[in-house]
């Protein structure tokens, strides 16, 4: 789909109608008019146009309210598609998904290091071209491209201001992709993209606020308030990995001491495990070969030292989340990312820490859960960037 068509579909009335159909389908024209306060002629004319575009379809007749049975409306999830991109520290993942977030094809590209901005953009474009080539979907059916990028992102311009894992600054992602593919492009910080994906596809129901925490190579978060991502004044809202937990702690990659990130990442867990192995060697296991996944496997096998490492990680994370509960007071906290594979030990420790430290009985009961979207949580969030702009624009 070319950008002109996308902009046409984003008109306020059409988006209001689309979002109502998306969230309440099957629904009648009359019910949409009643719910949205739009006039019946406005609803009918816009629905007619959306049906002509193929985005909305009519279904079986609804229940009669005393007159003729109404024709019900549904979103045609296969009418259009979105390219989602997740830029990780070592590779870029690409998918194409339909309007319901169902992934239909995927590919990936490795990222060499060191790398320049120009080299990064070449690989980024190559992967987008590849995922398009690998599918039979017509380019005209693609709404656009959503990119989840680690580090600090200037959302308005779609520029990666600082990508610490790659050592790059000021990458004009949106500008370059729009010029290359003539599609709408949205770029967002990866943790915030994950939060939006959870809000759209995580089956959490309607919440006033939700904090989503991404635990992996780093620690980031996204805050969704009334269905909208909160960015902050300088686009750094959610950088909870750099919350100070111990002023005398280890030096973080940001230069400060004792950041949450020095306790609750995969590398932090690995570092603790290697220290334990040096003090208490285990036959046939080299400290240098240990990984976060191995720590979890050995904890499952009954190694109490490794169980304690994971529980301590959850406890410290719980302290950090308690601080955020006191500041934000979200309805729900969702944990995602690779570290949550050890959720069996980490989640109960998080919940215990909150119960012990939160101020009020209700805040002690703040719901904390693990993401059900798994390893695709971030890239599904990248897809949601375009869907939010289509179905629910500001």
Give a written overview of the molecule.
- The chain contains 13 helices and 16 strands.
- The model has no long low-confidence stretch (mean pLDDT 91).
- The strands form four sheets. The chain has a five-stranded mixed beta sheet, with helices on both faces. It has a five-stranded mixed beta sheet with strand order 14-13-12-15-16, sandwiched between helices.
- The two termini are 21 Å apart.
- It folds into three domains: 3-75, Arc Repressor Mutant, subunit A, CATH 1.10.10.10; 81-198 and 378-391, 2-Layer Sandwich (Nucleotidyltransferase, domain 5); 205-371, Nucleotidyltransferase, domain 5.
- By secondary structure, the protein is of the alpha/beta class.
- A hairpin with a 4-residue loop joins strand 8 and strand 9.
- Helices cover 41% and strands 22% of the residues.
- The longest helix has 24 residues, at 304-327.
- Helix 8 (266-279) runs antiparallel to helix 10 and helix 10 packs across helix 11 (343-357).
- The chain has helices at 3-9, 12-24, 29-36, 40-53, 117-133, 173-181, 190-201, 266-279, 292-300, 304-327, 343-357, 361-364, 377-391, and strands at 27-28, 56-61, 71-75, 81-87, 91-98, 103-110, 142-149, 152-154, 159-163, 168-171, 184-189, 209-215, 219-225, 228-230, 332-336, 367-370.
């Amino acid at each position: 789909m070319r950008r002109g068509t996308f902009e046409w579909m984003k008109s306020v009335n059409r988006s209001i109608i689309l979002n109502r159909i998306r969230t309440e389908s099957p629904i009648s024209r009359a019910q949409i008019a009643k719910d949205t306060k739009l006039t019946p002629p406005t609803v009918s004319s816009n629905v007619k146009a959306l049906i002509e575009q193929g985005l909305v379809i009519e279904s079986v007749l609804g229940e009669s309210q005393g007159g003729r049975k109404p024709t019900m409306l549904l979103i045609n999830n296969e009418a259009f598609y979105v390219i989602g991109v997740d830029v990780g520290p070592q590779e870029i993942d690409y998918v194409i998904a339909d309007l319901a977030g169902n992934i239909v094809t995927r590919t990936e590209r490795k990222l060499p290091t060191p790398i320049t901005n120009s080299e990064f953009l070449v690989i980024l474009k190559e992967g987008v071209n590849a995922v398009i080539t690998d599918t039979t979907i017509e380019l005209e059916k693609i709404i656009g491209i959503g990119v989840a990028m680690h580090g600090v992102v200037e959302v308005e311009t779609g520029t990666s201001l600082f990508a610490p894992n790659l050592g790059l600054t000021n990458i004009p992602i949106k500008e370059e992709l729009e010029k290359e593919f003539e599609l709408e492009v949205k770029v967002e910080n990866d943790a915030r993209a994950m939060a939006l994906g959870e809000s759209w596809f995580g089956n959490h129901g309607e919440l006033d606020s939700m904090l989503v925490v991404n635990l992996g190579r780093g620690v980031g978060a996204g805050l969704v308030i009334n269905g909208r991502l909160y960015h902050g004044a300088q686009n750094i809202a959610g950088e909870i990995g750099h919350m100070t937990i111990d002023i005398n702690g280890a030096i973080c990659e940001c230069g400060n001491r004792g950041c949450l990130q020095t306790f609750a990442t995969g590398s932090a867990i690995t570092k603790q495990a290697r220290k334990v192995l040096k003090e208490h060697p285990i036959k046939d296991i080299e400290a240098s070969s240990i990984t976060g996944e191995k720590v979890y496997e050995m904890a499952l096998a009954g190694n109490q030292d490794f169980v304690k490492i994971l529980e301590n990680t959850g406890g410290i994370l719980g302290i950090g989340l308690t601080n955020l509960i006191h500041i934000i007071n979200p309805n729900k906290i969702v944990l995602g990312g690779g570290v949550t594979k050890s959720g069996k030990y980490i989640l109960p420790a998080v919940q215990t820490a909150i119960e012990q430290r939160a101020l009020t009985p209700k805040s002690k009961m703040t719901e904390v859960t693990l993401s059900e979207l798994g390893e695709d949580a971030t890239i599904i969030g990248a897809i949601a960037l375009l869907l939010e702009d289509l179905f629910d624009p500001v």
